[in-house]
């Protein structure tokens, strides 16, 4: 779900720049985004997983082949971990810049 993560990160970065322009924090907006992502995140993931499974089931008739493809599509991605850590580091850098007086 790289695209969804990138959209989420872009929204947070956009809010940070809006805060910089306005000169005060938008904590309510962040709380709203966190609640929205928390409530919709599982639903989005389920829909995406179900779409992938349905696609595999439609293309392949052999049970073992289906199982193999589903196993390959699922699980943790090494690049996903690197991507997540990178996003956290970018967030920390932005936060540090804001604390250093970049806010003024």
UniProtKB/TrEMBL annotation:
<feature type="transmembrane region" description="Helical">
    <location>
        <begin position="6"/>
        <end position="26"/>
    </location>
</feature>
<keyword id="KW-1133">Transmembrane helix</keyword>
<protein>
    <recommendedName>
        <fullName>DUF3899 domain-containing protein</fullName>
    </recommendedName>
</protein>
<feature type="transmembrane region" description="Helical">
    <location>
        <begin position="76"/>
        <end position="98"/>
    </location>
</feature>
<keyword id="KW-0472">Membrane</keyword>
<keyword id="KW-0812">Transmembrane</keyword>
């Amino acid at each position: 779900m790289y695209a969804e993560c990138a959209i989420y990160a872009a929204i947070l970065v956009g809010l940070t720049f809006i805060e910089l322009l306005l000169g005060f924090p938008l904590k309510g907006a962040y709380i709203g985004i966190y609640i929205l992502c928390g409530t919709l995140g599982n639903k989005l993931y389920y829909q995406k997983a179900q779409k992938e499974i349905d696609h595999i089931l439609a293309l392949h008739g052999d049970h073992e082949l289906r199982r193999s493809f589903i196993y390959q599509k699922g699980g943790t991605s090494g690049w996903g971990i690197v991507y997540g850590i990178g996003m956290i580091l970018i967030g920390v850098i932005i936060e540090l810049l804001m604390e250093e007086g970049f806010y003024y």
